[in-house]
Design brief:
Blueprint lengths: L9 H48 L3 H65 L21 H36 L1
Helix pairs in contact: 2-3
Length: about 180
């Protein structure tokens, strides 16, 4: 269909131009549609990539279970270590208590031997008559026993203080054990 064929004149040329313009407009509309569809496809591809990244970052249930299992074993090992520490501290406390008992027995022996020596000394000073008499020099102004018995009560007070200190020490060790077990 050439323009110079019969039946194609100037009027037909205008129709052709209108037809070309309509086709060009349709083509332009299709291009716009295509661009819009391409933008939507790119948007969907970006969203898909984001979803895949999230999936890769989030562990699967099997991976989560494995991680939790590792944490559990780690906590069990830590608990076992803390238990061993607590047992060691309890053993140390037990040893200290035994040592305290041994020292108390030794202390009582020393105390008893001092009292026995003091009694012998008093009996030896009373003379050959074998009776126990306190002279004026042995009594203070208020009729009390001599100074060394006061020293003995001071000694007993020191012993009580030592025992109390040691009991407090044992108590503090118990607290330390409790704190170490807790953390």
């Amino acid at each position: 269909n050439s323009m110079f064929e019969p039946g194609h004149g100037i009027g037909n040329n205008a129709e052709g131009d209108a037809s070309k313009a309509a086709l060009a407009e349709k083509l332009e509309n299709k291009k716009k549609e295509l661009l819009s569809v391409e933008e939507k496809i790119q948007l969907l591809e970006r969203k898909w990539a984001e979803i895949q990244d999230k999936v890769l970052k989030q562990p699967s249930p099997a991976q989560r279970e494995k991680a939790l299992d590792k944490q559990l074993h780690s906590l069990i090992e830590q608990l076992a270590a803390k238990q061993m520490q607590a047992e060691a501290l309890a053993s140390e406390i037990h040893m200290k208590e035994k040592e305290l008992e041994r020292l108390n027995r030794l202390w009582r022996r020393v105390e008893n031997s001092k009292e026995a020596n003091a009694a012998r000394n008093r009996l030896g000073r009373s003379g050959s008559s074998g009776r126990f008499d306190l002279t004026d020099n042995e009594l203070d102004g208020h009729g009390k026993l001599p100074y060394h018995t006061g020293g003995r009560s001071e000694y007993r007070q020191r012993l009580r203080l030592l025992r109390s200190s040691f009991v407090l020490y044992i108590f503090l060790l118990h607290i330390v054990v409790f704190i170490k077990i807790s953390f």
